[in-house]
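Thread: Newbie trying to understand structure tokens

Hi all, I'm a second-year student working on a class project, and my supervisor (Dr. K.) asked me to get a predicted structure for one chain before our next meeting. I've only ever worked with sequences, so writing a 3D structure as a token string is new to me. If someone could post the tokens and maybe explain what I'm looking at, I'd be very grateful. Here's the chain:
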Amino acid sequence: MEPIEVPKNTLETIRFQMTEFKGKPYADIRAYYQAENGDWKPTKKGLMISPEIRPEFAKGIERLDGELRKHGLSSQNEDQGGRDVAFPRPGTTQCQESRLPRSAYGK
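---
Reply by user tm_fold:
Sure, no problem. This is what the structure looks like when written as tokens:
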């Protein structure tokens, strides 16, 4: 699986990817920062989710999303089925604008 990245701010991105730890697969959701040399490095901020708890984790995210929507905290772009994001081009500090499909971040 190719990692999915969602910009958090100008200094960090959140990366969603599959990883393996002690021979067991996990979903890894982790903040990355851009080092001085331009490489993206993982931070300690993140979660590794085992397949056993993935269904409950997904339910929790859906429930939280519902609460945010109740409080009017959804973006105009999200309601239209996507999210505008800017991804740094590999090896540069320039950004490439893109449209993140709804399937990349849930309903």
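A couple of things are worth pointing out once you decode it. Strands lie at 4-7, 12-21, 24-34, 40-49, 82-88, 95-101. The two ends are 20 Å apart (CA to CA). Feel free to ask follow-ups in this thread.
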